Amino acid sequence: MTNREKLTRELAGKEYYDDPTVYEDYLTENDLDPDDEYDKGTMEKKLFKTVFSVLDALSRDIDLYRRIETEFSTTGEAYRALEKQLERLQWRINTMPDNAGEKRNSAVFMLWHD
């Protein structure tokens, strides 16, 4: 599976942008080649940063987000749900090791986390 395919999976198969180069740009910004084979051991954190970037951009264009995520009856509901998702994703990224095979003591890490 390529980085682009993995990104699509992590976005639950939702295509928020009509232009596929948008996703390629986000992958490239996070030092991932869209066409390279995804390797969890070395690319997981970068991929999740890419997911965060996509969702963060959507939080600034909530109408675009609601066009795909139609279960929200109000813009406020959609925004709160997206913000909660971003918080969970940021926590997950922060607790991931920077390098493959590196372990992170998340209990100590969280003592200094904002």
What is the number of beta strands? Answer: 0
Shape: globular
Radius of gyration, taken over Cα atoms and rounded to an integer in Å: 15 Å
- Alpha-carbon distance between the two ends: 35 Å
Helix content: 55-70%
Element pattern in H and E: HHHHHH
Any descriptors?
single chain; 114 residues; 0% strand
Give the topology, please.
Elements: H1 3-10, H2 21-29, H3 40-59, H4 62-68, H5 75-95, H6 106-111
Helix pairs in contact: 1-3, 2-3, 3-5
How would you concisely characterize the structure shown here?
The protein has 114 residues and is mainly α. It is 62% helix and 0% strand.
Structure notes:
Helix content is 62%, strand content 0%. The chain has six helices and no strands. 13% of the residues are buried. The model has no long low-confidence stretch (mean pLDDT 87).
